[in-house]
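Morning!

As promised:
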Amino acid sequence: MAERAIRDRNLLVVFTLGTFHAAALIAALVVILYASGGLAPLLSSLSTIAGLALFSALWLTTVWSAGRTLRGAFTVAPWTSVPLGIMIPRAAWRGGVNGVVFLACVGVILAISSAFNGDLGVVGFGALIFLTVGAAFAFVIGLVLGLLFAGIDLALVSATRAILDEKKSRP
Amino acid sequence: MPALHALSLFVRWAHVAGMAAILGGALLIWWMGVRRNRPDAGVVLDVAERYEWIFWAAIGMQVMTGVGNLGAFGQALPPPESGWGTKLIVKLVAVLALALLSVPRTLAVVAMAGTKRPRPGLLSTFYGGTTAVMVAIAGLAVWLAHG
């Protein structure tokens, strides 16, 4: 019973961080694209179903990635005793892998969408790009984002510890 | 009703339902913690822990359906320099801030549940704050919906 409660809490932390990363990334991108005038053309080129599928894929792969990063790193509190020298490279690596997995999902979703429109040439060209430059590019972007979110998460964990520090909060 | 119109309607419904879940849940936990005949702090913490699952599922849904709602505008999306555009940017930044500030709240709830040491005052502050931010975001959303 107690073990199940601990596992559920660990899962909640993984779900929280994964969802936070995916939601914050998309919200920040939407703000930047909208402010620069690039949002309307991008959204016009995507169907609603494809858009929902793309975000679902990003959400799923990012939660999975957060779970892989935090594997074996939990204690009774939601912070880890694993040294930063291990956690940060692990977060960067998992970010890179997440980038490649998400790109593969994008490829599948756009291929299905193109196949429905009868545009199979685009599918072949997209597969070629994915297998060459796309995967490497996605890995680097994912790695940088993994590092960025690792830094943000560490700051948020420090903030939580400070909030919960009863000695400091007493007058 | 055409299929795409039904989907667009469903996306809008999910967006409003998600906002209601976030706001209603935070308000409920805050009220549980501050009312005169308040329940045991452990019960409030138990409800808060369950709420955190709903909150993060709803935040993901909010972003997903929010982008879907913007997509429904197509090329008719008002420019960022317009009054509507400014309100949209403020709303998006507020949602980002809510997500950022909610991570320590969830981690603190998990830590309190793990150590079985609920802090009633802290829980009320967390959920009162979440309610206040959500009321502001909901107000902006209504303002946006009416042009």
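Residues 2-169 of chain A form one domain.

Hope this helps with the figure draft.
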